[in-house]
Amino acid sequence: MNQQNNVISKGIDWSIVWIWFLLSCIGILAIFAATYKEGTPVVQTFLGFKTDYSRQFYFFIAAAVIALVLVLIDSKFFTATANLWYVFGILLLLAVFAIGISVNGTKSIIRFGSFQFQPAEFCKITVALALAKYLSRVETDFSTVRAQLIATGIALLPAMFSIMQSETGLALVYFSFFIVMYREGLPSTVLITGFSLAALVVATLLVEKNLLAMILTGIAVLILYAMRKQLKRNRSILRIVVLVWLLCVGMIRFGVPFAFQHILQEHQVERIFSTIGRDIPEEYKSNEVKKELKRSKKDPDYNVKQSKIAIGSGGLLGKGLLKGTQTRFDFVPEQRTDFIFCTIGEGFGFVGSLTLLAIYLLLLFRIVAIAERQRSVFSRCYAYAVGAVFFFHIVINVAMTVGLAPVIGIPLPFISYGGTSLLTNTILLFIMVRLDADRQMVLR
To answer: For residue 17, is it within any domain?
Structure first.
């Protein structure tokens, strides 16, 4: 029996396992603190599958069973079936359009009896596997534009379907896979271009459009003047600068307003402008936004304000378990899901919040260390995909909780309530653990 246990545990990175266990327990405790009703028997409600924390407890048990199964599977299974899982994930996303149900204004859920399943969450696993499979192929030359476009398509196809299902926040998670591509040789100019476009979008929201167009024109003129000698030898520089200027002005004039009117939902538009402290300009209001603003008297920044009050009221050491007033009396909406971090901030203070972030930082460092020690390109790419997804979730969730990012509905890994999220993140992590246990094998 001991020999069998040694075989099962051989090569397993137990630090990752213990971090997963610790974060999952913190999550159950935080959900309990946010949703427990005074006077109800704790043991009975934990075992009854009727409260959020009891359901999360049972999801944790299911996740532990799945984790055990994953560490027993042959590593070659993941490389052999990666593309099949990707196709299966895309089919699930397509099935949402036919049999999906609407929840909170988004149609991204498939229901099986009392169990709800979100394919866009599950597809993070399938994209990580398929992208790792493609990048690890012997015939893949990632220095070519064709290979880079194929990899981008693998990553962003589920994002496109998620946007069509009004899950814009979750769709943004798929952009984290560009970190994997960058590690495997994607030119830095691509990332610089992406960040520049994001900065241009933010600038469009903050600066008057005509003034911003004048600033861009001035920058273009300065570039041409600085490169006047090169222009005499290479006239294509002029065409490139003019083309980039036209694209930027086109985004300012038409692209950004179109996205706000026809792609983003009304609550997302409200939250973005409330984050930057501006009223919504008329040109960014769709008909739905105008109707919502007339109908609703609620402050669009209400959630974030209450979240910051809760975190600030926690002070240095917090108010203690079940003693937080903001979370106990439901002042913070969605405090068991998107705003779970404020429950920890109020209950356990700055020290508790910092401890949680330190655990996350340790997790990310371990994932990067695991990725870099792999002999297999597939395993390295997959590990970086896991780290990139977790990094995006952690940073965006905490940032939106404290008002540094718009509220886009991204859960905190292993902490926020949700069976699909917990199971998905566990599967993501333990496939990596299984691949790392066989790191001496070269998987293609």
So the answer is: yes
